[in-house]
Specification:
The protein is mainly beta. The chain has three helices and 14 strands. It has two domains: 159 residues, Leucine-rich repeat, LRR (right-handed beta-alpha superhelix), CATH 3.80.10.10; 147 residues, Ribonuclease Inhibitor (Leucine-rich repeat, LRR (right-handed beta-alpha superhelix), Alpha-Beta Horseshoe), CATH 3.80.10. This is U2A'/phosphoprotein 32 family A C-terminal domain-containing protein.
Length: 327
C-alpha cells in the first residue's frame, strides 16, 4: 500500500474549531519566487493571495484548516502539483483553470463526490484517500491518469474506469467492494490493490496481463483462481482470507513474494506445491493451522520454520525473518 493508506487519528472537532486560522499573506515566507512552496501545518483558513508565488510548480497546503477550493487563477500557468492532504474540504470545485496540473492530492478531507475534474487532462496521479466517496465517477476525461488512490472510502463497486487505459496503479483498499469487475480495459495495470474489502472470488482479472503486483488480503476469498493469464505476477498477497488449498499457481514462474499468512492451510503437502516457483524468495505463512500444534491455536509448532524450509529450501525470507539463504 502507499503511504496514503496509513491510519490517521480521529479529529477532535472542538479543538479543531478553537484553533484560529490565518491568511496566506500573513505568513512570513522566505522564498516566494521559488518553484516549491510548502505551507504545511500553518493554520491557513482559505486559499487566496496566490499571486505572491509567480513561479510555483509545487504547492503544499497539507494539514491546514481549508474548507473550500478557490482562487487558483494566479498560479494556473505554472502549478503542476497541488497537495491538500488533511484539510476540511467538502467539495471538489474551482480547479478548472489548473490545466497543467500533474499531481493532485485531496486525501483525508470530507469529500463525498468525485466531480469537476473534466479540465484536468494532464493529471497523472490522483489521491482521494480517506474521504466519504461512495461511487467511482466522473473520471473519464482524465485519460493520462497513471495512478489512482481511492483507499479508505465507502465505495461498493469498481466502475466507470473504462477510459483510464493508461492507468498502471489502482489502489482501492479499505472500501466495501464485493467483486473484481469492469477492469478489462485497464491492460496497462501493473499494480492492483483491493485489500480489506468484501471480495469472495478471484475473477475479472484475465485481461490484466501486465499485472506484477496483486494485493487481495483481508477479503472473503476461499479459492485461488483466475490467475491463468497473469504470468508477469511478482507479488501476490492473499493474506487474511479463508483459503485451504494452494492451487492454480504453478504457471506463475515470475512470482517472487507470496503473502499467505492467516489462511486455512492445514496440510503440509500444500506448501510443497510452491517448490515449482523457482523465483520465489519470500513467503508469509504464519498463523495458518500448520503454524500451530493444537486446534485452539494456543501453541506455536516449534518445528514450523524448519518444515517450511525443508519444503522450500531456497527461501530468503519466511514471514518477517530472513533465512540466511543468498541466491
Amino acid at each position: 500500500m502507499t503511504e496514503h493508506n496509513q491510519p490517521k487519528p480521529p479529529i477532535n472537532n472542538d479543538e479543531e474549531q478553537s484553533v484560529p486560522g490565518v491568511e496566506i499573506d500573513e505568513l512570513d515566507i522566505s522564498n516566494m519566487e521559488g518553484e516549491e512552496i510548502d505551507l504545511e501545518h500553518c493554520r491557513i483558513k482559505c486559499i487566496n493571495k496566490l499571486e505572491r508565488f509567480p513561479n510555483v510548480r509545487r504547492l503544499c497546503l497539507r494539514n491546514n484548516l481549508l474548507k473550500k477550493l478557490e482562487n487558483f487563477e494566479p498560479v494556473c500557468q505554472t502549478l503542476e502539483e497541488l497537495d491538500l492532504y488533511d484539510n476540511q474540504i467538502t467539495k471538489i470545485e474551482n480547479l478548472e483553470c489548473l490545466s497543467k496540473l500533474i499531481i493532485l492530492d485531496l486525501s483525508f478531507n470530507r469529500i463525498k463526490h468525485i466531480e469537476n475534474l473534466n479540465n484536468l487532462h494532464c493529471v497523472k496521479k490522483l489521491f482521494l484517500v480517506n474521504n466519504r466517496i461512495s461511487k467511482v465517477e466522473n473520471l473519464s476525461s482524465m485519460r493520462d491518469l497513471e495512478m489512482l488512490e481511492l483507499g479508505s472510502n465507502k465505495i461498493r463497486k469498481l466502475e466507470n474506469l473504462e477510459e483510464l487505459t493508461k492507468l498502471t496503479q489502482l489502489y482501492c483498499g479499505k472500501n466495501k467492494i464485493s467483486a473484481l469487475e469492469n477492469l478489462d480495459t485497464l491492460t496497462n495495470l501493473t499494480l492492483l490493490s483491493v485489500q480489506g474489502n468484501r471480495v469472495t472470488k478471484m475473477c475479472g482479472l484475465a485481461k490484466l496481463v501486465n499485472l506484477e503486483q496483486l494485493y487481495l488480503s483481508e477479503n472473503g476469498i476461499t479459492e485461488i483462481e483466475g490467475l491463468e493469464t497473469l504470468s508477469k505476477l511478482q507479488i501476490l498477497d492473499l493474506a487474511c482470507n479463508f483459503i485451504s488449498q494452494i492451487q492454480n499457481m504453478s504457471h506463475l514462474q515470475n512470482l517472487e513474494e507470496f503473502w499467505f499468512n492467516d489462511n486455512k492451510i492445514s496440510d503440509w503437502g500444500q506448501i510443497e506445491k510452491l517448490s515449482v516457483l523457482k523465483k520465489l524468495h519470500t513467503v508469509y505463512m504464519e498463523r495458518n493451522p500448520i503454524y500451530f500444534l493444537n486446534s485452539d491455536r494456543t501453541r506455536h509448532d516449534p518445528n514450523y520454520r524448519r518444515k517450511v524450509l525443508l519444503a522450500l529450501p531456497n527461501l530468503q525470507q519466511l514471514d518477517a525473518n530472513p533465512t540466511g539463504v543468498n541466491m
